[in-house]
Every structure is written in structure tokens, then in C-alpha cells.
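Take a record:
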Amino acid sequence: MDERTLQLQRCMYQYSRAIYRSIKDLIDPYVDQESQLEYRRAVLAACEQTMERLAKDPLYFANPSRALFQDIRRYFPITCQAQVAWAVEKGVAAAVAFIEEQVEAGALDGGVARCRATTRKGKPCQRTPLPERDYCPSHQHLERTPVAA
């Protein structure tokens, strides 16, 4: 693997661990020790799987925080679920913001940058920008030119 991919995997690993660390102490304390250990493993695995999927396919993972919460909510008592949902939402939102930065910078998507403009329908332009520019030929009129002093 190239260095960029390894760095991205390390970052996503840190996001999954941060989510896990923030909720691991809320796992159902009323079950036996063996079940609690099994629950912790399941929650950690779900966090890691969500982050892996988000890193591999960020454009087609509609609600990663909802998906993760649905996967892990059964391991927490009802009194802690709001706190778990909040922690999952914040952690996944941070990971999504990081992935979006990587996509905009061209680090994902095969290393190809995308035009920063939006189409008439409000979707991001999928064309490649001009060299050393932020916009494609169709949207080059949106490029801000430096003002001469």
C-alpha cells in the first residue's frame, strides 16, 4: 500500500477508537463479566467496520452515524442510549468531515481532484479542475483572480 492510504487508515482507526473509548464504560453493567467482554468486542468491531466503510465508500454511505447506532444500541441500557447516540453522532461527524476534506483535496477518489462548483441541481460538479485551479473549464468563471495593487 502507498503511504497516503496507510495514513488514511491510521486516521480512521483513531476515529473508531475515539468513539469506542467514549462509550465503552456505558455498556450494560448488569450482565455477567463474560457477556460484557463480548459486548465490548462487538461495539469495537462495529465502530471499526463503520469507519472502514466510510473510508472505502464515502459517497454512498448515507447515514453512517445512524447505521452505527443501530448496530450497537442493544449493548447499552435504555438509560444510556441518548448519551451513546450523541457520542456516536459527534464522532462520526468528525470522521465524515475529515473524509470530505480528503475528497476535496483529491486524496481519495484515485487521487483526482474535483471541481469546487455545484451544478444547477445543487450537486457537486464531478469534472476535473484545470491544472493549478479549483474549477473545471465549465466553471472557470467562478475562479477568483488576485487583485493587482
Notes: The CA atoms of residues 16 and 45 lie 9 Å apart. The longest helix spans residues 81-105. The chain is about 55% helix and 0% strand. The chain has a mean pLDDT of 86.
